[in-house]
Amino acid sequence: MSLAQTGNFKAYPARSKRPSIGRKIRAVWRRARWSLAHGLIKSAFYVAKAGGRPYEPVEIGGRRFDNVRDSDGRWRAIATVLKQFGVRNVLDVASAEGWFVRRAATDLHCFAAGIEASDCMAVGELSRLYDRAERMATIRSFVGPKDLLALPKFDAVICMSVVHHIIRAYGLATAGEFVTALVSRVNKVLILRGRYG
Fold first, then answer.
1. CA-CA-CA-CA torsion for 37, 89, 72, 44, nearest 10 degrees?
2. What number of CA atoms fall less than 13 Å from residue 92's CA on the CB side?
3. Distance between CA atoms of 112 and 89, rounded to whole angstroms?
4. Among 72, 119, 69, which residue's Cα sits nearest to residue 96?
5. For 100-147, how does the pLDDT look when each residue is reduced to its tens digit (9 = 90+)?
6. Where are the domains of the chain?
7. H-type helices in 94-187, by residue range?
């Protein structure tokens, strides 16, 4: 079995290089730059989060900032379904801070993408960058039915507490088009939750 088939590689193999003063100086400078960038990301996270409790929990550097919803219970229910269907990639529409995106990537080793129209997604992205969380990202965009149709298909699509906003703002017909577009992006399972469901 080849290395690619086992999936046991995380980085390119180290190449032996002749040690030199210049190489050592560049390595120290690179570490200093990344250390500064890492500190700036953490500072930006705290500034962005300063508005109060997030809509979904957010973690940074091993510290969790809770929210007012039962996100853990919701995640357990979602994770059970994702495992049942053998999901390998996930799209979370209206992902807020990206809690379910992060959980799918870290707990289930899925490739996960979130789409969020509001600025709250920046808090989740900053925590992802700080923690160097892999296999996930959040995109800032308002998506309607036509936008959804431009996306590739995913094994699972999560859409929690969104459709009622579309009904209020654009009417029942547009909400129907939105749900139809969501369904068209699904290979295995759609997890859809209404406001009171």
1. 20
2. 29
3. 6
4. 119
5. 999 999 999 999 999 999 888 888 888 888 888 999 999 999 999 999
6. 63-193
7. 99-108, 121-131, 145-149, 163-170, 172-184
Tens digits of per-residue pLDDT, 56-88?
Answer: 888 888 888 888 778 889 999 999 999 999 999
Q: What pTM value is reported for the model?
A: 0.81
User: What is the rounded CA–CA span in Å between residue 20 and residue 84?
Assistant: 53
Angle (CA) 139 145 148, round 5°: 40
Q: Is 101 exposed, middle or buried (0-12, 13-18, 19+ CB in 10 A)?
A: buried
Question: How far apart are alpha carbons 88 and 133 in whole angstroms?
Answer: 17
Strands (E), the chain: 58-60, 63-65, 89-93, 111-116, 136-140, 154-160, 186-193
The CATH number of domain 63-193, selected from 3.40.50.720, 3.40.50.740, 3.90.199.10, 3.40.50.150: 3.40.50.150
